[in-house]
C-alpha cells in the first residue's frame, strides 16, 4: 500500500481539526500547514473557548508554523483550511507570504474575496477540495445551534 | 490641575507604546484600548521579537482587552493606534465590533483602506490625532534601519 499525500489527504487532516472545533461547540473550521509533504502546524477555531475573535484556526496555525520554522515567513508552505479565510486571516497570510492556500468551502458572506481583502501576490490559491464535506459539517453545526436556542 | 482625557491624551499613551517597540528594534506602532475613560489594554508591535506576523500591536491589544472584559466584543471601547491598521488588524477589529477607532498616521501602502479591507459598520473612525509625532517616529526608525544595513 502506498500513502498518497495529495490535496485531499491534507484537507482531510484539516477536516479532522474542524471536527475537534465542532466537538467543543466552536464554528467548525480546521487548518493544517504543510511543508515538504509534512504537517508542521495544525489548528482549529477557538474563538468561543478563548473569548477571543483573533483565535481563528488560521491565525493559530500561522503562529505555530512560524514557530516550527524559526522564521516568520511561510515560504514553500501550503495552508489547507476547510473554509475560505476571512479578511483578518487573509491579512495574516498576506504578511506571511505563504506560497499556497487551499480551501474547501467558500464563504460568500465573510470570505476575504467578498470583503475585499487581498492575499500576497506570491500566494497561489486553490479551492473546492472536499468542499461538500466541509460545508456539510458547517451546516450541521448551525442547524444544531439553531435548535438549541 | 485637571487631567484632560481627550483623544490626544490617549494617543500619547499609544505613542509611548510605539516608543517601546522602537527601543526593541520593532517597527514602532503602539496601541491602547480605552473603555469608560480607562486604558484596559496596551500593546506594541512585536513581530520581529516573536517571529510572528500576527503579533501586531492591535492584535495583542484586542486579545488583552477581551480578556479584561471577559467577552470577545469590544462594544463601547475605543482603540487608539499610532498607525492606520493593516487588513489583518482591520479584520480583527471587524470581528470585535469595536465602537471607535482612532489612528494617528495614515498608511497609504498597506493600510486597510488601500488594501480594500473593511471595518464593522458600527465602528466610527477618526484619524490624524498626533499624526506628525507618529509619522516622525516611523520615519526615524526606517532611516536608522537603512543606515544599519
UniProtKB/TrEMBL annotation, chains A, B:
Reactions performed catalytically: adenosine(34) in tRNA + H2O + H(+) = inosine(34) in tRNA + NH4(+)
Active-site positions on this chain: 58 (proton donor)
Phosphoprotein among keywords: no
GO molecular function, one term: tRNA-specific adenosine-34 deaminase activity
SUPFAM superfamilies recorded: Cytidine deaminase-like (SSF53927)
EC number: 3.5.4.33
Cofactor: Zn(2+)
PROSITE patterns: CYT_DCMP_DEAMINASES_1 (PS00903), CYT_DCMP_DEAMINASES_2 (PS51747)
Task performed by this protein: Catalyzes the deamination of adenosine to inosine at the wobble position 34 of tRNA(Arg2).
Family the UniProt entry places it in: Belongs to the cytidine and deoxycytidylate deaminase family. ADAT2 subfamily.
Subunit structure: Homodimer.
Record-given protein name: tRNA-specific adenosine deaminase
Organism: Salinimicrobium flavum
Amino acid at each position: 500500500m502506498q500513502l498518497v499525500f495529495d490535496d485531499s489527504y491534507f484537507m482531510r487532516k484539516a477536516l479532522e481539526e474542524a471536527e475537534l472545533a465542532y466537538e467543543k461547540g466552536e464554528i467548525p473550521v480546521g487548518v493544517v500547514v504543510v511543508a515538504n509533504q509534512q504537517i508542521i502546524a495544525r489548528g482549529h477555531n477557538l474563538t468561543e473557548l478563548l473569548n477571543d475573535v483573533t483565535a481563528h484556526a488560521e491565525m493559530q496555525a500561522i503562529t505555530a508554523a512560524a514557530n516550527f520554522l524559526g522564521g516568520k515567513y511561510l515560504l514553500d508552505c501550503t495552508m489547507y483550511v476547510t473554509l475560505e479565510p476571512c479578511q483578518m486571516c487573509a491579512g495574516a497570510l498576506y504578511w506571511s507570504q505563504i506560497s499556497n492556500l487551499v480551501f474547501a468551502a467558500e464563504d460568500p458572506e465573510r470570505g476575504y474575496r467578498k470583503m475585499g481583502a487581498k492575499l500576497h501576490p506570491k500566494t497561489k490559491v486553490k479551492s473546492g477540495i472536499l468542499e461538500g464535506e466541509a460545508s456539510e459539517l458547517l451546516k450541521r453545526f448551525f442547524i444544531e445551534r439553531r435548535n438549541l436556542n
